[in-house]
From TrEMBL:
Domain of life: Eukaryota
Lineage: Eukaryota, Viridiplantae, Streptophyta, Embryophyta, Tracheophyta
Record domain Rieske: where: 218-318
Region of interest called Disordered, as start-end residue ranges on this chain: 169-206
Listed GO MF terms: 2 iron, 2 sulfur cluster binding; chlorophyllide a oxygenase activity; iron ion binding
Protein name in UniProt: Rieske domain-containing protein
């Protein structure tokens, strides 16, 4: 679909927005009466001074781009939509001010002192006139409410158009539908919605083998604290078995979890002097995969596959791809001022992309997490994820939560929180205390994910020293995850049977959509990946 719109579909209703420069002393008839009232020197201007910051907003119509009757590209159309929202905000303020001023007039008419110089008949007449004006003002408020609803619908439609354009740019071969003609583009938004072909992401059918290009990244696989000297951690990564252990120098290594001799799993054995020992015949392998000991036979030149392995910021990372490892590793440290309180590892029976889709979506919280962190949350009338045009991070509105997808499989979020289960403020900067989360979704296999979860706080450091607190954090994390897991498992079942789990993305799905477009570009081998800065 071509991402364009007409000014007729998005422009503000100018015919309904004219102001009247009338004298408020003679009563006001028709149009909007606020300008005359506010313009009267010595009138009600002083009385509304305390409301000044709320109502001293410039009329945006004078700055609105003049696109009426023209075809617009996506950016121009979004600019018009932005001014549309600004106008609705300004109009709502003026409607409210009108009602407040009229109520003040009613109070003045009913003032007992007024009876000294006004007859009952005069007061009744003035009250009747004010009642008519109040009735008209309230009708105008209802009109403004309808305009706001329409403007939000238009904005949502524009976001759909932009998403459609993104889908079209990513999948040009599938864009076989003709663009709308000028005659059809001037129809109502609802008509265009019904008749325009809608592009969507295609995530359907059995999970396919992972593309080799997706392996050419550094993947966190374990927390440093879990890999002690003389111990091993068996993991699966891209459907291959590996085992982690530390060499004699204390540095971590990662080798294939299969002995070269008789294919015995090495993690069933032990670590001896910085080498992993097979429990079957005692063959021992160093961190680079070389067999350095073969009891009861002559030492042969045998080596098993190993992966580049590095330790940074309390995490162990491996490079499973065939390309040379990148020189820069992703930083996963919590922001300054935070202390790590919990590090938890779970094995989950879902494909890692579906789990990332879930973690990158917060709009589901008041419906899904009603027994844990979102208990008591109200359902907002509109949920938005605000992000730069080129980026994989942003913040949620109306929730004080910042979120980022960090390639290839990490989600970082910072939550402004006042006490458990409660949110405060409209942004994280307005909140006094915060919780920072890191989720790493390692693709173990096509139907299994190794989840690494790290939780950090910038308050209550004493909790780190409370006995058994780690078990409490794990219990809470499992509760939250189980609320999601039953839904994601259901999605996975439907997806395998042919349903498209991204059939109808909407505006608050923006970050999940960008992750899917990024992943598609990686699998296609594109040199410049979307939503990343050019190098």
């Amino acid at each position: 679909m071509t991402a364009f719109a007409t000014a007729a579909a998005l422009s503000v209703p100018i015919s309904l927005c004219r102001s009247s420069k009338l004298n408020c002393k003679k009563g006001v008839r028709g149009g909007f009466r606020v300008f005359a009232v506010l313009g009267e020197e010595g009138g009600l201007l002083d009385k509304k001074s305390t409301w000044g910051p709320l109502f001293d907003v410039e009329d945006p119509r004078s700055k609105m781009p003049q696109f009426k009757g023209k075809f617009l590209d996506a950016y121009q159309a979004l600019e018009v939509a932005r001014y549309d929202i600004q106008y609705c905000d300004w109009r709502a303020r003026q409607d409210l001010l009108t009602i407040m001023i009229l109520h003040e007039k009613v109070v003045e008419v009913l003032n007992p002192l007024a009876r000294d110089y006004k007859s009952i008949g005069t007061m009744k007449k003035e009250l009747a006139e004010l009642q008519d004006e109040l009735s008209q003002a309230h009708r105008q408020v209802h009109i403004s409410e309808a305009r706001v609803s329409t403007a939000l619908d238009k904005l949502a439609y524009m976001e759909e158009l932009v998403n459609d354009r993104l889908f079209q740019d990513r999948n040009p071969a599938e864009s076989d539908q003709p663009s709308p003609s000028p005659s059809t583009s001037t129809q109502s938004t609802d008509t265009v919605k019904n008749k325009s072909p809608r592009k969507n992401l295609k995530v359907s059918g059995p999970v396919q083998p992972y593309h080799p290009h997706l392996k050419n990244f550094w993947y966190p696989v374990a927390f440093s604290t879990d890999l002690k000297d003389g111990t091993m951690i068996p993991i699966d990564c891209f459907e291959e078995p590996w085992v982690l252990f530390r060499g004699m120098d204390g540095k971590p290594g990662c080798v294939r979890n299969t002995c070269a001799h008789r294919a015995c799993p090495l993690d069933l054995g032990s670590v001896n002097e910085g080498r992993v020992r097979c429990p079957y015949h005692g063959w021992e392998y160093s961190t680079d995969g070389k067999c350095e000991k073969m009891p009861s036979t002559r030492l042969l030149n045998v080596k098993i596959k190993s992966l580049p392995c590095f330790e940074q910021e309390g995490m162990i990372l491996v490079w499973p791809g065939s390309d040379p490892p990148a020189a820069t590793l992703p930083s996963l440290q919590p922001p300054p001022g935070f202390q790590v309180h919990a590090e938890i590892v779970m094995e989950l029976p879902v494909e890692h992309g579906l789990l990332l889709d879930n973690l990158l979506d917060l709009a589901h919280a008041p419906f899904t997490h009603t027994s844990t962190f979102a208990k008591g949350w109200s359902v907002p009338s509109l949920v938005k994820f605000l992000t730069p045009a080129s980026g994989l991070q942003g913040y949620w509105d109306p929730y004080p939560i910042d979120m980022e997808f960090r390639p290839p499989c990490m989600v970082l979020s910072t939550i402004g929180i006042s006490k458990p289960g409660k949110l405060e403020g409209q942004s994280t900067r307005e909140c006094a205390t915060h919780l920072h989360q890191l989720h790493v979704c390692l693709p173990s296999s096509r139907h299994k994910t190794r989840l690494l979860y790290r939780m950090s706080l910038d308050f209550a450091p004493v909790l780190k020293h409370v006995p058994f607190m780690h078990y409490l954090w794990r219990h809470f994390a499992e509760q939250v995850l189980n609320e999601d897991l039953r839904l994601v498992l259901g999605q996975q079942e439907r997806m395998i049977n042919g349903a498209n789990v991204w059939n109808w993305p909407v505006s608050y799905d923006k970050l999940g959509v960008r992750y899917r477009l990024w992943r598609d570009a990686v699998e296609k081998g594109e040199k410049q990946l979307p939503f990343e800065k050019s190098t």
